[in-house]
């Protein structure tokens, strides 16, 4: 297994080009199954997860051509409405194919995703909504067996604005008979892009970008060409690194999608400069402690919580970080403490006491965002850090090592 070596303490300076958003492209790839013909997606990031999703689409019989950053999916050969455990267990977002497969074939066999590093992540909202749309759902040997000669429109209300459930039901509803309404829908930019894509394909969707979506079912969707939005979590990760260690400019950003992060950076004393599509975060000599609670969009993203904790480790005082989306997403905490941080957790809150410096150590990455937080902490630490199990980072960050190198960091990948 490869690892990442970091020689900490170097100043970061320069600009990075942000890749396409992982959490936008994965449902978009699933959505391509809804069209008859060849859909092309541009600005696809070269990630473990996009490769996994491409393999999953191939299992269904679709012809997939992945030539980063371009991807085409031809559905005319599709014949197998199945998502096997071997693939789903490595990437929960595989569950996105359930809605499209059921809608296309009238049946689907999709493995349950199971838990993950930070506890159970259920799919009950997805299943309850599909049942309401007329599907019969059985759970057998770890698989969801869904059947519906046709899906029918209905009204769905999620108890929590789940990103995945909103995407799945949105896709299922596009070719259902009648009108579906989704109340308390997720408003994340990635879901907005999915809805825009479906609309371009001929779906009739109202309320895009709001928490109330109305979908009038149509018979067919047509293939299109579309480019993926920049990854706001990758943007946030590099801005936090810049705020701690120098001056980093992220190009091709959408500042309006990062308002909560930019406000928090400002409170932390970071100088933030916005110039149309680029954002620069600069260290000003001091990091103020800033409390925060993660929330659904437009709140502070749970996917930046780990990176923010790494930032707060070196703040001049104590801070409190609560994750209201995932209550147990703190696997990075013991690893950050190995680097000399002073963090305690209680329920879904981390209490961080700022320390004067971090010291390099061997640490282990446990999920995508935890890995990013360890890289930030390792870059800021004195001495050498070795991050192992980096297959997690390969799932969600395109060439993170090369991008940090271009900013002046001493960081390299070590092949095992
Ligand atoms: N939930 C349920 N039942 C469901 C679905 C969700 O109780 O059927 C709960 C979850 O347990 C959680 C909350 O609702 O407490 C939110 O989960 P959501 O469904 O919104 O998450 P997701 O769709 O599984 C996506 C991202 C995650 C990101 C979350 C929250 C993708 C592929 N994944 O997951 O991204 O953390 O939304 O914003 O879009 C990552 O990129 O590292 C990552 C984990």
Question: Helix and strand layout, with pairings?
Answer:
Elements (H helix, E strand, L loop, with lengths): L2 E5 L4 E5 L5 H10 L6 E5 L5 H12 L3 E5 L2 E5 L7 E2 L1 H4 L9 H8 L1 E5 L12 H9 L3 E5 L2 E5 L7 E3 L5 H12 L4 E5 L5 H12 L3 E3 L5 E5 L8 E3 L4 H14 E5 L8 H9 L3 E5 L2 E5 L9 E3 L10 H8 L5 E6 L8 H7 L3 E5 L2 E5 L8 E3 L3 H13 L3 E5 L2 H6 L3 H7 L3 E5 L2
Parallel strand pairs: 2-15, 3-14, 6-7, 10-11, 18-19, 22-23
Antiparallel strand pairs: 1-23, 1-24, 3-5, 4-5, 7-9, 8-9, 11-13, 12-13, 15-17, 16-17, 19-21, 20-21
Helix pairs in contact: 1-2, 1-7, 4-6, 5-6, 6-7, 8-12, 10-12
Bound molecules: uridine-diphosphate-2(N-acetylglucosaminyl) butyric acid.
The site of uridine-diphosphate-2(N-acetylglucosaminyl) butyric acid has 23 residues, from helix 1, helix 5, helix 6 and helix 12.
